[in-house]
Amino acid sequence: MKSLKALFLLVLFGALVSRPAMALVDQAQTVNSATATIERMKTESSFQETLQKRLKEARAVLVVPALYKAGFIFGGQYGNGVLLARQPDGSWGYPAFYTLEGGSFGLQMGLESSAILFVVMSDAGLTALLNNQFKIGADAGITVLLVGAAVSADTTSNLGADMLAYSLSGVGLFAGISLEGAVLSPRESWNADYYGRNLSSRAIVLEGAASNPQADRLRETLAH
Fold it and tell me: pLDDT tens across 124-162, in order?
């Protein structure tokens, strides 16, 4: 009986120890995928030069490396991402984790995965993202423009935008992409697992309260 109890306690202890390590897999994958997304977008011919320029001027970036959309008439979208801000010394800080999710209605059918990069051009845009939940298109004071065939990042109207959203389509079939009404929310539990303690997104992004060397490649990719 004692041996069974000891075995149970050993298994329970092992599960508790391994849980944070297992939880870190999703965060590490998101960070690595965000790095690959930045690298890919920097070589994308359709907005290569303008993106490099905007990144140098940016206050922050939010990368969603895989935004999944699916639906038939009624649709939905969901993806995990990371938010990083430029620090006072000009370097990029460490990431806080976010989700992007929302529903849609209209003539749509299919399944698609897209990569989205939000280039945050103003302090107001960054503040909106840090205020718990930000619904795209719902805040009259914040302008989010989707950069694509119809809207160039170099047009005069974009110079005053709080955020520019760059999109790259993956495998699938969808007639364009719409972010109107989508909600960006912090994932504080992911932050806690990734940095080993409870931290708000604001503390990570603005105050530089945490670091994790696993994200250094992402920071370097943004800087060059």
Answer: 999 999 988 899 887 768 999 888 644 454 554 455 789
Q: How large is the angle between the packed helices 2-42 and 48-57, nearest 10 degrees?
A: 110
Neighbours of 110 (CB within 10 A): 13
Q: 206: which 2 tokens?
A: 């603005």
Q: Could you write out the DSSP letters of every residue in the chain? A: -HHHHHHHHHHHHHHHHHHHHHHHHHHHHHHHHHHHHHHHHHT-TTTHHHHHHHHHH-SEEEEEEEEEEEEEEEEEEEEEEEEEEB-TTS-B---EEEEEEEEEEEEEEEEEEEEEEEEE-SHHHHHHHHSS-EETTT-TT--EEEESSSS-TTSGGGGG-SEEEEEEEEEE--S----TT-EEEE-HHHHHHHHSS---HHHHHTT-----GGGHHHHHHHH-
> What is the pTM for the complete model shown?
0.81
Kindly list the domain boundaries of the chain, sorted by start residue: 2-223
pLDDT digit string, tens, across residues 73-93 = 455 788 999 999 999 999 999
The rounded Cα 2 to chain-centroid distance in angstroms is 49
The rounded distance, in Å, linking the Cα atoms of 46 and 160 is 21
CA angle (137 as vertex; 94, 183 as ends), nearest 5 = 50
| Calpha distance 15→13 (Å, rounded) | 5
Residue 22 pLDDT > 80? no
Mean pLDDT of the chain: 80
Evaluate whether 57 touches 89 at the Cβ level (below 8 Å): no
